[in-house]
């Protein structure tokens, strides 16, 4: 694992959506997903990207956090937060990628992909 990038691509009012897709692209693993936040002040954050060489498994964990500039007035709407995580590998891609989300009630696996 050489480099990891994470960005929030869209935030909008919505429902309690928790999903992700994994793409193996050249020397990169790309995860595009949606996690939900409890109110309008929530955004997504990469909790962990860890590679276990013994299991040949990449674990990506995404959670929600308060936006740094949120202030005190948060809408009470559920937020759908779209994100993109990219992990670049120098010595070959992992065999398995496990993506989990934590919306405040603990980690739960969203998807597992194998190549």
From TrEMBL:
Originating organism: Haloarcula rubripromontorii
Lineage, uppermost ranks: Archaea, Methanobacteriati, Methanobacteriota, Stenosarchaea group, Halobacteria
Name recorded for this polypeptide: Uncharacterized protein
Location of the region described as Disordered in the Swiss-Prot/TrEMBL record: 1-20
